[in-house]
Amino acid sequence: MNRNEYLARIHYPGTPSVTFNSLAELQHCHMRAVPFENLAIHYQQPILLNEDRLFRKIVGNRRGGFCYELNGLFAQLLQEIGFTVTLISAEVCQSDGTFGPAFDHLALLVELDDVFLVDVGFGDSFIRPLRLQQRGSQMQGTTAYLIRQEGDTYVLHHKKLAEPGADWKPHYRFTRQARQLADFSPMCHYHQTSPESHFTHKRVCSRATVEGRVTFSDQRLVVTQGASRTETILESEAEFSQALQAHFSIRI
């Protein structure tokens, strides 16, 4: 891995060190520069969890990816810098309140003075690390995050404070068992090929911005800036391609 090229890709200022401030800035920069996207699945571009291929795609070709790609490569960057990183398997909460299978999501634990949950591959989620053992809520913008421990299992919850009467909703659950990137290959294949995977149903591309987020969901372009939200319907494939290049510098 060329660390300097990766840091330039995410517009990281200066030289990172093995500190919380650097870790937080690395995650924040990554989520603003590198989109969460599944476009490869819809344009017949196979996704293989090979670190050289991931680096070429995300850094060299300035693309994004989904959790296995983004967190898999980000873990390598953090290790190159000197962080102690553990890859973990997470089960994502479904719309009916049940949890998906093991290896449904790849997230990271990073050890400093505390253990931190780090994730650059879950789309619209926390943009700075969360303390694993903190039992109270952890605020980021207008969203509160809460990690509840149930035996050996941790459950990440979130709550939108701008929504009146909002309650805690689970994102995913996980344990601290260490995994290898190759362990996620079967589920990576499933999510890019199975008609039962939500990733095969529609195209998604999303990244954080200074004031909110910009997201493509099939033919809808959604831009949020603080409390403002605009939605535009893209009427043709040509409009989609033009908007994709304008907002993400991606050309398929």
Structure report:
The protein is of the alpha+beta class. The chain has one domain (3-248): Arylamine N-acetyltransferase fold (2-Layer Sandwich). It has helices at residues 3-9, 20-33, 39-42, 51-60, 67-81, 185-193, 237-248; strands at residues 36-37, 84-92, 105-111, 115-118, 130-131, 138-140, 143-150, 153-160, 169-174, 204-208, 212-217, 220-225, 228-233. The strands form two sheets. The protein has an eight-stranded antiparallel β-sheet, covered by helices on one side. It has a five-stranded antiparallel β-sheet with strand order 1-10-11-12-13. The radius of gyration is 17 Å and the shape is globular. It starts with a helix and ends with a helix.
- The total tally of domains equals 1
CATH class: Alpha Beta
Q: Identify the quaternary structure here.
A: single chain
What is the count of helical runs?
Answer: 7
Explain the layout of strands and helices:
Layout: H1 3-9, H2 20-33, E1 36-37, H3 39-42, H4 51-60, H5 67-81, E2 84-92, E3 105-111, E4 115-118, E5 130-131, E6 138-140, E7 143-150, E8 153-160, E9 169-174, H6 185-193, E10 204-208, E11 212-217, E12 220-225, E13 228-233, H7 237-248
Antiparallel strand pairs: 1-10, 2-3, 2-9, 3-4, 4-5, 6-7, 7-8, 8-9, 10-11, 11-12, 12-13
Helix pairs in contact: 4-5
